[in-house]
Amino acid sequence: MGWIKAGSRGTVLAGALCAALFALGGSASAAAVTYPSGGSGFDEGAEGWSSGGTSCSPAELLCTSEATYDATAGNPSGSIAAKTTVTLNLVGLFKGTATWRSPQFKVPTSSITDAEVHLDSAFDPGGLVDVEPEATYAVTLVDLSNDTSVTALEEELGEEDGAFARADAPVPVVGGHTYQLSIESETAQSTLALSALSGTASLNFDNVGVTVKTGGGGGGGADDKGSHSRSSSLSDNRLLSLLRDAAASGPAVLKGNRLFVKVGCPARVGHACRITAQGLLGKRKPATAKRTVKVAKGKGKRVALRVKPRVRSKVGKRKRLLVRERVRAGGASATVYKQRRLIRRG
Protein backbone atom coordinates (compact mmCIF):
# COMPACT_ATOMS: atom_id res chain seq x y z
CA MET A 1 0.00 0.00 0.00
CA GLY A 2 2.87 2.37 0.80
CA TRP A 3 4.39 1.85 -2.60
CA ILE A 4 1.05 2.49 -4.27
CA LYS A 5 0.59 5.75 -2.35
CA ALA A 6 4.08 6.91 -3.24
CA GLY A 7 3.49 6.07 -6.88
CA SER A 8 0.19 7.94 -6.84
CA ARG A 9 1.89 10.98 -5.32
CA GLY A 10 4.64 10.81 -7.92
CA THR A 11 2.03 10.63 -10.65
CA VAL A 12 0.26 13.69 -9.24
CA LEU A 13 3.53 15.63 -9.00
CA ALA A 14 4.49 14.67 -12.52
CA GLY A 15 1.08 15.73 -13.79
CA ALA A 16 1.37 19.06 -12.01
CA LEU A 17 4.84 19.59 -13.47
CA CYS A 18 3.61 18.85 -16.97
CA ALA A 19 0.71 21.25 -16.55
CA ALA A 20 3.06 23.99 -15.36
CA LEU A 21 5.41 23.43 -18.26
CA PHE A 22 2.49 23.48 -20.67
CA ALA A 23 1.28 26.77 -19.22
CA LEU A 24 4.75 28.26 -19.48
CA GLY A 25 5.07 27.05 -23.02
CA GLY A 26 1.69 28.57 -23.91
CA SER A 27 2.62 31.93 -22.42
CA ALA A 28 5.93 31.88 -24.25
CA SER A 29 4.29 31.09 -27.59
CA ALA A 30 1.76 33.94 -27.48
CA ALA A 31 1.90 37.28 -25.70
CA ALA A 32 0.43 40.77 -25.85
CA VAL A 33 2.40 43.74 -24.52
CA THR A 34 1.35 47.41 -24.51
CA TYR A 35 3.89 50.20 -25.10
CA PRO A 36 5.17 52.51 -23.78
CA SER A 37 5.64 51.01 -20.30
CA GLY A 38 2.48 48.91 -20.30
CA GLY A 39 0.31 51.74 -21.63
CA SER A 40 -0.10 55.35 -20.51
CA GLY A 41 -2.91 55.69 -17.96
CA PHE A 42 -1.60 59.03 -16.61
CA ASP A 43 -2.76 58.23 -13.07
CA GLU A 44 -0.05 60.29 -11.38
CA GLY A 45 1.51 62.37 -14.15
CA ALA A 46 2.40 62.62 -17.83
CA GLU A 47 4.50 59.41 -17.63
CA GLY A 48 7.28 60.65 -19.88
CA TRP A 49 5.04 62.23 -22.53
CA SER A 50 6.22 65.70 -23.54
CA SER A 51 4.97 68.68 -25.53
CA GLY A 52 5.98 68.77 -29.17
CA GLY A 53 4.92 72.39 -29.59
CA THR A 54 1.84 74.63 -29.37
CA SER A 55 0.42 77.60 -31.29
CA CYS A 56 -2.67 79.79 -31.28
CA SER A 57 -3.86 82.37 -33.80
CA PRO A 58 -4.61 85.12 -34.44
CA ALA A 59 -2.49 86.67 -31.72
CA GLU A 60 -4.64 89.81 -31.43
CA LEU A 61 -7.44 87.70 -29.93
CA LEU A 62 -5.27 86.94 -26.89
CA CYS A 63 -5.37 83.25 -27.68
CA THR A 64 -3.03 80.71 -26.06
CA SER A 65 -2.55 76.94 -26.31
CA GLU A 66 -0.80 74.52 -23.99
CA ALA A 67 -0.03 70.82 -23.68
CA THR A 68 -0.53 70.08 -20.00
CA TYR A 69 -1.27 67.31 -17.51
CA ASP A 70 -4.86 67.23 -16.19
CA ALA A 71 -5.24 65.41 -12.87
CA THR A 72 -9.04 65.84 -12.71
CA ALA A 73 -10.23 64.46 -16.08
CA GLY A 74 -9.67 60.94 -17.34
CA ASN A 75 -10.91 57.35 -17.48
CA PRO A 76 -10.21 57.11 -14.52
CA SER A 77 -8.90 60.53 -13.42
CA GLY A 78 -5.58 61.60 -14.91
CA SER A 79 -4.95 62.48 -18.57
CA ILE A 80 -2.90 64.63 -20.89
CA ALA A 81 -4.67 67.61 -22.44
CA ALA A 82 -4.47 70.12 -25.27
CA LYS A 83 -6.04 73.30 -23.90
CA THR A 84 -6.95 76.42 -25.87
CA THR A 85 -7.73 79.61 -23.94
CA VAL A 86 -9.23 82.79 -25.43
CA THR A 87 -9.37 85.90 -23.25
CA LEU A 88 -10.80 88.32 -25.86
CA ASN A 89 -12.65 87.58 -29.08
CA LEU A 90 -14.94 89.99 -30.89
CA VAL A 91 -15.40 88.77 -34.45
CA GLY A 92 -12.38 86.66 -35.39
CA LEU A 93 -12.00 82.90 -35.68
CA PHE A 94 -9.38 81.29 -33.43
CA LYS A 95 -7.37 78.11 -33.95
CA GLY A 96 -5.17 76.48 -31.33
CA THR A 97 -2.82 73.54 -31.88
CA ALA A 98 -0.85 71.31 -29.52
CA THR A 99 1.28 68.19 -29.99
CA TRP A 100 2.11 65.43 -27.51
CA ARG A 101 4.98 62.95 -27.95
CA SER A 102 5.39 59.66 -26.09
CA PRO A 103 8.59 58.16 -24.69
CA GLN A 104 10.44 56.01 -27.20
CA PHE A 105 9.87 52.24 -27.05
CA LYS A 106 11.29 49.17 -28.78
CA VAL A 107 9.10 46.25 -29.87
CA PRO A 108 10.29 42.62 -29.54
CA THR A 109 12.03 40.67 -32.28
CA SER A 110 9.56 37.78 -31.87
CA SER A 111 7.13 36.98 -34.67
CA ILE A 112 4.53 39.76 -34.57
CA THR A 113 0.98 38.68 -35.34
CA ASP A 114 -0.89 41.94 -34.72
CA ALA A 115 -0.45 45.50 -33.48
CA GLU A 116 -3.02 48.13 -32.55
CA VAL A 117 -2.89 51.74 -31.34
CA HIS A 118 -5.64 52.84 -28.95
CA LEU A 119 -6.71 55.73 -26.72
CA ASP A 120 -9.65 57.30 -24.89
CA SER A 121 -10.54 60.89 -25.78
CA ALA A 122 -13.01 63.56 -24.65
CA PHE A 123 -13.67 67.20 -25.53
CA ASP A 124 -14.97 69.95 -23.25
CA PRO A 125 -15.67 73.32 -25.00
CA GLY A 126 -15.83 75.07 -21.62
CA GLY A 127 -16.62 78.76 -21.76
CA LEU A 128 -16.23 78.78 -25.55
CA VAL A 129 -19.32 76.64 -26.15
CA ASP A 130 -21.27 79.52 -27.73
CA VAL A 131 -18.94 79.61 -30.75
CA GLU A 132 -19.25 75.83 -31.21
CA PRO A 133 -15.54 74.94 -31.23
CA GLU A 134 -14.52 71.72 -32.98
CA ALA A 135 -11.52 69.61 -31.99
CA THR A 136 -9.60 67.24 -34.23
CA TYR A 137 -6.67 64.97 -33.49
CA ALA A 138 -4.39 62.60 -35.36
CA VAL A 139 -2.30 59.81 -33.82
CA THR A 140 0.91 59.00 -35.70
CA LEU A 141 3.23 56.07 -35.10
CA VAL A 142 6.80 57.12 -35.92
CA ASP A 143 9.37 54.42 -36.75
CA LEU A 144 12.61 55.96 -35.49
CA SER A 145 14.66 53.04 -36.86
CA ASN A 146 13.96 53.85 -40.50
CA ASP A 147 12.58 57.42 -40.27
CA THR A 148 9.06 56.62 -41.48
CA SER A 149 5.62 57.24 -39.99
CA VAL A 150 1.99 56.23 -40.40
CA THR A 151 -1.11 58.11 -39.26
CA ALA A 152 -3.27 55.49 -37.55
CA LEU A 153 -6.17 57.43 -36.03
CA GLU A 154 -7.98 60.64 -36.99
CA GLU A 155 -11.13 61.91 -35.31
CA GLU A 156 -13.18 65.07 -34.93
CA LEU A 157 -14.99 65.87 -31.65
CA GLY A 158 -17.65 68.38 -30.67
CA GLU A 159 -19.53 69.49 -27.56
CA GLU A 160 -21.50 66.21 -27.44
CA ASP A 161 -18.26 64.25 -26.96
CA GLY A 162 -17.71 65.18 -23.32
CA ALA A 163 -17.52 61.57 -22.11
CA PHE A 164 -14.33 59.58 -22.68
CA ALA A 165 -14.70 57.12 -25.58
CA ARG A 166 -12.23 54.60 -26.95
CA ALA A 167 -10.83 54.56 -30.47
CA ASP A 168 -8.32 52.11 -31.91
CA ALA A 169 -6.83 51.04 -35.22
CA PRO A 170 -4.29 48.52 -36.56
CA VAL A 171 -0.73 49.70 -37.20
CA PRO A 172 2.25 48.09 -38.97
CA VAL A 173 5.23 47.40 -36.72
CA VAL A 174 8.60 45.76 -37.40
CA GLY A 175 10.26 43.50 -34.85
CA GLY A 176 13.24 45.09 -33.12
CA HIS A 177 12.44 48.64 -34.29
CA THR A 178 12.14 51.66 -32.01
CA TYR A 179 8.97 53.76 -32.11
CA GLN A 180 7.35 56.88 -30.74
CA LEU A 181 3.71 58.00 -30.69
CA SER A 182 2.70 61.53 -31.64
CA ILE A 183 -0.73 63.11 -31.03
CA GLU A 184 -1.37 66.29 -33.01
CA SER A 185 -4.49 68.23 -32.05
CA GLU A 186 -6.35 71.31 -33.22
CA THR A 187 -9.21 73.22 -31.62
CA ALA A 188 -10.94 75.75 -33.87
CA GLN A 189 -13.91 78.09 -33.66
CA SER A 190 -16.68 77.26 -36.14
CA THR A 191 -19.05 80.25 -35.75
CA LEU A 192 -18.38 83.95 -35.31
CA ALA A 193 -18.76 85.52 -31.88
CA LEU A 194 -21.25 88.38 -31.72
CA SER A 195 -19.75 89.76 -28.52
CA ALA A 196 -16.66 89.47 -26.36
CA LEU A 197 -16.07 86.06 -24.84
CA SER A 198 -13.46 84.20 -22.87
CA GLY A 199 -12.89 80.63 -21.79
CA THR A 200 -10.88 77.44 -22.19
CA ALA A 201 -11.62 74.40 -24.35
CA SER A 202 -9.90 71.14 -23.42
CA LEU A 203 -9.19 68.05 -25.54
CA ASN A 204 -8.07 65.19 -23.27
CA PHE A 205 -6.39 61.83 -23.94
CA ASP A 206 -6.13 58.82 -21.63
CA ASN A 207 -5.07 55.15 -21.78
CA VAL A 208 -2.86 55.67 -24.82
CA GLY A 209 -0.68 52.88 -26.14
CA VAL A 210 0.31 50.39 -28.82
CA THR A 211 -0.54 46.77 -28.05
CA VAL A 212 1.74 44.31 -29.87
CA LYS A 213 0.85 40.62 -30.08
CA THR A 214 3.55 38.05 -30.76
CA GLY A 215 3.44 34.36 -31.59
CA GLY A 216 6.70 33.44 -29.81
CA GLY A 217 10.05 32.39 -31.26
CA GLY A 218 12.86 34.93 -31.19
CA GLY A 219 14.31 36.70 -34.18
CA GLY A 220 13.71 35.95 -37.83
CA GLY A 221 10.33 36.00 -39.50
CA ALA A 222 8.80 38.49 -41.85
CA ASP A 223 9.01 41.26 -39.29
CA ASP A 224 12.79 41.29 -39.40
CA LYS A 225 12.57 41.81 -43.14
CA GLY A 226 10.56 44.97 -42.60
CA SER A 227 7.08 43.73 -43.43
CA HIS A 228 4.01 43.66 -41.23
CA SER A 229 2.42 40.26 -40.72
CA ARG A 230 -1.14 39.97 -42.00
CA SER A 231 -3.40 37.45 -40.35
CA SER A 232 -4.98 36.34 -43.62
CA SER A 233 -4.74 36.62 -47.38
CA LEU A 234 -7.36 39.38 -47.48
CA SER A 235 -6.08 42.05 -49.89
CA ASP A 236 -7.09 45.69 -50.28
CA ASN A 237 -8.72 44.94 -53.65
CA ARG A 238 -10.62 41.95 -52.26
CA LEU A 239 -11.93 43.99 -49.35
CA LEU A 240 -13.02 46.77 -51.72
CA SER A 241 -14.84 44.27 -53.92
CA LEU A 242 -16.68 42.76 -50.94
CA LEU A 243 -17.73 46.19 -49.69
CA ARG A 244 -19.05 47.20 -53.11
CA ASP A 245 -20.99 43.95 -53.45
CA ALA A 246 -22.56 44.27 -50.00
CA ALA A 247 -26.27 44.96 -49.68
CA ALA A 248 -27.39 48.60 -49.51
CA SER A 249 -26.93 50.15 -46.08
CA GLY A 250 -30.23 52.05 -46.05
CA PRO A 251 -31.00 55.77 -45.86
CA ALA A 252 -29.30 58.46 -43.81
CA VAL A 253 -31.55 59.96 -41.13
CA LEU A 254 -31.19 63.61 -40.12
CA LYS A 255 -32.32 64.50 -36.59
CA GLY A 256 -31.46 68.04 -35.55
CA ASN A 257 -27.70 68.42 -35.86
CA ARG A 258 -26.98 64.69 -36.11
CA LEU A 259 -26.92 62.36 -39.08
CA PHE A 260 -27.54 58.67 -38.41
CA VAL A 261 -26.17 56.10 -40.87
CA LYS A 262 -25.85 52.34 -40.73
CA VAL A 263 -22.51 50.74 -41.63
CA GLY A 264 -21.81 47.06 -42.04
CA CYS A 265 -19.03 44.48 -42.20
CA PRO A 266 -19.69 41.73 -44.80
CA ALA A 267 -19.45 38.19 -43.39
CA ARG A 268 -17.22 37.13 -46.28
CA VAL A 269 -14.52 39.55 -45.07
CA GLY A 270 -13.74 36.99 -42.38
CA HIS A 271 -12.66 39.60 -39.83
CA ALA A 272 -14.16 42.37 -37.74
CA CYS A 273 -14.10 45.73 -39.53
CA ARG A 274 -12.88 49.07 -38.26
CA ILE A 275 -15.09 51.60 -40.10
CA THR A 276 -14.65 55.39 -40.17
CA ALA A 277 -17.79 57.05 -41.53
CA GLN A 278 -18.31 60.66 -42.63
CA GLY A 279 -21.11 62.47 -44.46
CA LEU A 280 -20.05 64.59 -47.44
CA LEU A 281 -21.53 67.27 -49.68
CA GLY A 282 -18.91 66.21 -52.24
CA LYS A 283 -15.81 64.05 -52.17
CA ARG A 284 -13.77 67.03 -50.90
CA LYS A 285 -16.53 68.79 -48.91
CA PRO A 286 -17.15 67.33 -45.42
CA ALA A 287 -20.68 67.70 -44.10
CA THR A 288 -20.22 65.92 -40.77
CA ALA A 289 -17.58 64.95 -38.27
CA LYS A 290 -15.91 61.53 -38.59
CA ARG A 291 -16.78 58.60 -36.39
CA THR A 292 -14.91 55.29 -36.04
CA VAL A 293 -16.62 52.10 -34.87
CA LYS A 294 -15.73 48.42 -34.69
CA VAL A 295 -18.23 46.08 -36.36
CA ALA A 296 -18.17 42.28 -36.13
CA LYS A 297 -18.14 40.31 -39.38
CA GLY A 298 -21.62 39.85 -40.77
CA LYS A 299 -23.01 42.59 -38.51
CA GLY A 300 -24.06 46.22 -38.82
CA LYS A 301 -24.01 49.24 -36.53
CA ARG A 302 -25.81 52.60 -36.44
CA VAL A 303 -23.46 55.58 -36.25
CA ALA A 304 -24.31 59.15 -35.21
CA LEU A 305 -22.39 61.86 -37.08
CA ARG A 306 -22.44 65.49 -35.97
CA VAL A 307 -23.34 67.84 -38.83
CA LYS A 308 -20.93 70.76 -39.16
CA PRO A 309 -22.62 74.04 -38.15
CA ARG A 310 -21.59 75.88 -41.32
CA VAL A 311 -23.32 73.41 -43.64
CA ARG A 312 -26.44 72.46 -41.65
CA SER A 313 -28.77 74.43 -43.91
CA LYS A 314 -27.24 72.85 -47.03
CA VAL A 315 -27.54 69.34 -45.62
CA GLY A 316 -31.14 69.99 -44.63
CA LYS A 317 -32.06 70.79 -48.24
CA ARG A 318 -30.53 67.65 -49.73
CA LYS A 319 -32.54 64.67 -50.98
CA ARG A 320 -29.45 62.45 -51.00
CA LEU A 321 -26.12 62.63 -49.19
CA LEU A 322 -22.76 61.06 -49.93
CA VAL A 323 -21.29 58.91 -47.14
CA ARG A 324 -17.66 57.82 -47.12
CA GLU A 325 -16.63 54.63 -45.31
CA ARG A 326 -12.95 53.91 -44.70
CA VAL A 327 -12.68 50.28 -43.71
CA ARG A 328 -9.83 48.25 -42.21
CA ALA A 329 -10.05 44.49 -41.73
CA GLY A 330 -7.48 41.72 -41.38
CA GLY A 331 -4.60 44.01 -42.38
CA ALA A 332 -6.40 45.24 -45.53
CA SER A 333 -7.96 48.68 -46.05
CA ALA A 334 -10.39 50.18 -48.57
CA THR A 335 -12.58 53.25 -49.03
CA VAL A 336 -16.08 53.26 -50.50
CA TYR A 337 -18.49 56.11 -51.25
CA LYS A 338 -22.25 55.53 -51.06
CA GLN A 339 -25.08 57.89 -51.96
CA ARG A 340 -27.75 57.61 -49.27
CA ARG A 341 -31.34 58.78 -49.45
CA LEU A 342 -31.80 61.51 -46.81
CA ILE A 343 -34.74 61.29 -44.40
CA ARG A 344 -35.58 64.10 -41.94
CA ARG A 345 -37.07 63.31 -38.57
CA GLY A 346 -37.82 65.41 -35.53
Structure description:
It is a single chain. The chain has 346 residues and is mainly β. The chain has two domains: 32-225, Jelly Rolls, CATH 2.60.120.260; 236-344, Immunoglobulin-like (Sandwich). It is 13% helix and 50% strand. The protein is flat and about 55 Å long. It starts with a helix and ends with a strand.
Topology:
Elements: H1 2-29, E1 31-40, E2 50-57, E3 63-74, E4 77-86, E5 95-101, E6 105-106, E7 112-124, E8 134-143, E9 148-157, E10 165-170, E11 178-188, E12 199-214, H2 236-245, E13 252-255, E14 258-264, E15 273-282, E16 285-286, E17 291-295, E18 300-306, H3 312-317, E19 320-329, E20 332-344
Parallel strand pairs: 13-20
Antiparallel strand pairs: 1-12, 2-5, 3-4, 4-12, 5-11, 6-11, 7-10, 7-12, 8-9, 8-11, 13-14, 14-18, 15-16, 15-17, 15-19, 19-20
